[in-house]
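User: structure tokens for this one?
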Amino acid sequence: MDEREFDDFYTASFQKITGQVYAMIGDRDEAQECVQEAFVRAWAHRRKLERAEHPEAWVRTTAYRLAVSRWRRTTRSRRPADRALGARTETAAPSEAHVALVAALKQLPEAQRQALVLHHIADLPVHAVAQETGVPEGTVKARLSRGRAALAALLSDDTGYEKGASRA
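Assistant:
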């Protein structure tokens, strides 16, 4: 993969992967930093990446693993990650429904959250989610089913985000 191809890959994938990692971990700044670091690593492994069947999956998995590692390091040290080095960026405020969805996703077990994000946000088929997470397809289907049921309960009419439902 030459520099131009990598730039095209980065331009086409960065926002999408950042959104997916954000949905998995619930922290947009952390997601952006981890995806950026994953792309730095992808550049270093671009020869392997050009042979990969799904380079976006490689970057997404790397970014997610970086986020988990950073979370563990922060938790162990009990101090917040250093944000002083990064420049402040202004982004549009998320919609109320988006905030509710991210808050609900945070309440789900990690495995269910990851399966839901990969399948519904990253648009991966069940077999690809199974391959990326390293579990059988049946397990992914169970996680999706349980996760959707839990999200439905969390985003029910009581919170005002479920469309078409009426109170009894």
